[in-house]
């Protein structure tokens, strides 16, 4: 059975609400990301503005994607935390190249990130682990992410045992050795803003190729070693 949904469309922004080069608040991607992210955080309709779709590729070239929560960003990159035994972590250990996408529907905006990952230090991972609510810490200890499990009852039983051990006497829960953080170090960051006429705005920051010439027309000089350009929608 094939369902045709080709007629599904929504109106984006008006023609005079464009995203032009003169609207950039920074000539590097992190300052521009902060401006858009802060605006997304200010919209109550966006429940998790830090949600991003993380895409990884296996050593055999098979892609997979899932939504994560970004837990920090800056000029060093974008941070997230997960189980080192998960599918994403196993794929990242074999292939460091990843992509991530933020999408804020009510703003008609998206940010695409391409780069590679590094592991965060044990110190930083431990610090973040203990900043999480206790039930979240227990859940990380109870779940061996991405491994097959017979039933949810097994997870619940693990959770009960951990709660009995750590929540009643209020002991510190040790961070599991198989849990920690990563940072995406971008090579390219693209800012997309949807337009009603489908002539969407796309401005992409990237690292220049060796010997590439910045002509001020198709390619513009940015800050901190970045260049940027407008892409056709």
From TrEMBL:
Pathway: Cofactor metabolism; pyridoxal 5'-phosphate salvage; pyridoxal 5'-phosphate from pyridoxine 5'-phosphate: step 1/1; Cofactor metabolism; pyridoxal 5'-phosphate salvage; pyridoxal 5'-phosphate from pyridoxamine 5'-phosphate: step 1/1. Keywords: Flavoprotein, FMN, Oxidoreductase, Pyridoxine biosynthesis. Residues 44-155 form the Pyridoxamine 5'-phosphate oxidase N-terminal domain. Pfam families: PNP_phzG_C, PNPOx_N. GO terms for biological process: pyridoxine biosynthetic process. PROSITE patterns: PYRIDOX_OXIDASE (PS01064). One of its GO terms (molecular function) is pyridoxamine phosphate oxidase activity. Belongs to the pyridoxamine 5'-phosphate oxidase family. Catalyzes the oxidation of either pyridoxine 5'-phosphate (PNP) or pyridoxamine 5'-phosphate (PMP) into pyridoxal 5'-phosphate (PLP). This is pyridoxal 5'-phosphate synthase. It comes from Papilio xuthus (Asian swallowtail butterfly).
């Amino acid at each position: 059975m094939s369902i045709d949904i080709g007629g599904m469309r929504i109106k984006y922004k008006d023609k005079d609400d464009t995203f032009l080069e003169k609207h950039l608040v920074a000539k590097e991607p992190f300052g521009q990301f902060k401006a858009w992210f802060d605006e997304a955080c200010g919209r109550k309709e966006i429940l998790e503005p830090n949600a991003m779709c993380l895409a990884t590729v296996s050593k055999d070239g098979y892609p997979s994607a899932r939504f994560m929560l970004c837990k920090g960003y800056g000029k060093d990159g974008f941070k997230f935390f997960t189980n080192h035994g998960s599918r994403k972590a196993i794929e990242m250990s074999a292939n460091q190249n990843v992509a991530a996408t933020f999408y804020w529907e009510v703003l008609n905006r998206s940010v695409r990130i391409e780069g590679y990952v590094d592991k965060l230090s044990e110190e930083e991972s431990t610090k973040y682990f203990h900043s999480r609510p206790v039930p979240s810490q227990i859940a990380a200890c109870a779940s061996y992410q991405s491994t097959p499990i017979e039933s949810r009852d097994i997870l619940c039983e693990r959770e009960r045992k951990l709660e009995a051990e750590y929540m009643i006497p209020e002991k510190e829960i040790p961070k599991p050795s198989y849990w920690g953080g990563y940072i995406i170090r971008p090579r390219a960051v693209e800012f997309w803003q949807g337009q009603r006429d489908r002539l969407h705005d796309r401005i992409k920051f990237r690292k220049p190729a060796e010997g590439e010439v910045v002509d001020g027309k198709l390619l513009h000089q940015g800050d901190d070693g970045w260049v940027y350009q407008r892409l056709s929608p």
